[in-house]
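Dear colleague,

Thank you for sharing your sequence with our group. We've completed the structure prediction you requested, and as agreed, I am returning the results in plain text so they can be pasted directly into your records. Please verify that the sequence below matches your submission; if there's any discrepancy, let me know and we will rerun it promptly.
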Amino acid sequence: MPGAYASGLPKLHPRWMRRRYSSGTLGERERRRLAPLAAALGRAAAATGPPRLEPVAGSLPSGATAGLLAGTFNPFTRAHAAIAVAGHRAGCEPVVLAMAPVSLAKEGLEQAHPVDRLDWVTAWARRHPWAVVAAASHPLLVDMAEALGRATGMEVALLLGADKAAQLVEARWYDDPAAAMARLDRAATLLIAERAGHRLPAIPLRASPLPTAAWVPERSATQARAAAARGLPPDDLLPAVVARGVARTGAYAPGTSYLGRIRELDALVTSGRHGELGFPLEAPDRRR
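Please find the predicted structure tokens below.
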């Protein structure tokens, strides 16, 4: 990666260090703000029936082509943001940023709580009128693509990096891989961005390259987590609004200080799912 993170790490930034070690406990105002996100994730985790996407920021209009960028967003990086912007420039509107409460093959990596991660994505999306954030009931991209097509009646374009495109066709994710590929081919086209260390794969689906800036393939959430854990300023890795959220919550700080916040957020998800919050939910963000 270009810059300070490529070869040697810069000196610790004192203000970043002070902010990074926040207590992480939820005040009443923050509980009320996060409650709609927690409730949406709770409903997604408990959902039965067909896969669905529940918007938590923005709405799903009808139109020509909807972009779908799905991920754990652990955290939401400048590369994620660049792919979303590139999808919009390629003609996708809206671009839906979808996150499932449970992800595939990344359970051990999910250091930041899903509610915090969804909150950071939502904060970024509020600054982009064409972006929608949604909680997904199922983690498979084919399920999300079909759900988005049903909800909007639009053509769907999956926005993804070459690394995820290669994973997409791995048989291990599907009970019937051939049937899953046929479903995906009907549900969406693919717009694939380059990723460092990953060639654009040959896949049996409708796919085109998604041009992005030269720096995008080098950025990763792994770098962002490592930088935050070491107290390094993440300016090159995270959008500013996400960096503030990471610093405020201390999600990637070493030690156990974040565990208290995790417990409180878990309780918020559970109580929201069962209607036991003790206060009325604020309406999801529909501002556009």
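Summary note from our side: The CA atoms of residues 94 and 130 lie 5 Å apart.

Kind regards,
the structure core
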